[in-house]
């Protein structure tokens, strides 16, 4: 019994740092969201829900950031999950080539967002970039674009980079899931004369649904956090076409010095993430039970 | 079928290789060479950009700062998180479960949510423009994921080992560093790699807390090269290669561990 008292000491250092530098600021964000604090002075007034009502009713850039976040998230979740699943199916066997390709596909994951941002700014460069040059040299000029400068496509151009960045990581999760499926299930399917698609939809998919849950949930959260990538590639421009909540909060707080207002944005940000994660788990879990 | 499969794999391999190779080539080129033909080989493989960037920029300082911040942050996160994970495992019950939830809930909160009060806190403690400030923040924000991975692993260790230690008169501390730590080595190394990549590449916290050149880390320095070398891609990419070199080298030699580590944070759920 005396032993277990000492056991509480093990939590002390972790709890101190985590509480002071993580929990406390998170709670303070909620507190500041009800103030008009500018972050520079020590005085501020309580303004009730004013920040929130302003955000929702007359801040078109905030609404735009939120929409961009959703576009970015949808693109990344759909393509990253699709790509990683397809490549995992193709590379599931542990042959030498497959192991090499998995390692190659995984490689971008270890780079920093800022390096990836520079690499792709270069690839996308309208004059210099490899992409436009490639299209032009094969006679497809009409596909050449100002990838990061065109308001209509810039957000998708960056979303594609995010997919390039992390597909390899998600691929590994799927490969692990696939390799855990017993071989004899496939043999049964073969004997029964199932087509490739039938085998996939009736055997593989139900059994990797848990892995898919993880991939989708993780990708969603990751795509919401894409601050570094976007900040380094476009700073949210042109004309807020790539502004997402994370970059908007940063500029509102540290460029316009509206700390209270930006805190209200971050509280909404937190709620949106909580809601999306919750919905995903419900939908994906329901799927799993059906199967 | 076989043919489309190979084509698909080949296309994606090219999609990874072309950007990477073309920026490596770019570091050996001059600016005008880049403008002539992006995919061509450089006229000569000389390292003038590499020497140039070390002369023009305090690359050595940035590099050292990154190394220091990353190493110290990783070591302390691992130490504190393994203590917590051990406590959770030994305590069990609703208190252990409650502490586990308290820590791991942090994984759901993106850094941008609490960065404003965090900035204020760090500022009022006089820890802006300080490597120690960066280390403290780093270790605090990565505790959730580290506790998550490590306690998942420690829970799977056989209880009988701890009981045997109690019978031999061992106390909690001995249990922790004689049994739990050595046996958790696989998950400790996976967590370490995950944290290494994360801290080494982090941009947000240096961007928030560091303004003086002598405390800048590599990612922050790179971000500022962007303005300075607007169209000087060779120099920019030389910076990218230098900043990524340690991770790339480590990846070449410890590939298996990297893959395990980088996925640990997401799979253990």
From TrEMBL, chain A:
SUPFAM superfamilies in alphabetical order: MetI-like (SSF161098)
Residue span, ABC transmembrane type-1 domain: 66-280
Chain segments annotated as transmembrane: 7-34, 72-92, 104-124, 153-182, 203-221, 259-279
| PROSITE patterns documented for this protein | ABC_TM1
Give the superkingdom in one word: Bacteria
What is the membrane topology listed in the Swiss-Prot or TrEMBL record?
Multi-pass membrane protein
Against Gene3D superfamilies, the record matches this protein to:
MetI-like
Q: Which UniProt keywords apply?
A: Cell membrane, Membrane, Transmembrane, Transmembrane helix, Transport
Task: Report the principal subcellular site.
Answer: membrane
Which cellular compartments is it found in? Cell membrane
The record's listing under InterPro entries reads: ABC_transporter_permease, MetI-like, MetI-like_sf
Question: What Pfam families does this protein map onto?
Answer: BPD_transp_1
Question: In which family does this protein belong, per the annotation?
Answer: Belongs to the binding-protein-dependent transport system permease family.
Name of this chain's protein: ABC transporter permease
Its lineage opens with:
Bacteria, Bacillati, Bacillota, Bacilli, Bacillales
TrEMBL record, chain B:
Cellular component per GO? plasma membrane
Q: Where are the transmembrane segments?
A: 7-28, 62-84, 91-111, 131-154, 175-198, 233-254
Q: Does the keyword Repressor apply?
A: no
Where in the cell is the protein located? Cell membrane
Domain ABC transmembrane type-1, residue spans: 63-254
Sorted alphabetically, the keyword list is: Cell membrane, Membrane, Transmembrane, Transmembrane helix, Transport
Report the main location listed first in the record.
Answer: membrane
Q: Name one GO biological process term.
A: transmembrane transport
Which InterPro entries does this UniProt record tie to the protein? Answer: MetI-like (IPR000515), MetI-like_sf (IPR035906)
Q: Which organism is it from?
A: Sutcliffiella horikoshii
Segments forming a coiled coil:
none
Family annotation (PROSITE patterns): ABC_TM1
Give the family, as the similarity comment puts it: Belongs to the binding-protein-dependent transport system permease family.
Q: Which domain of life is it from?
A: Bacteria
Membrane topology category = Multi-pass membrane protein
Tagged with keyword Isomerase: no
- Protein's UniProt name: ABC transporter permease
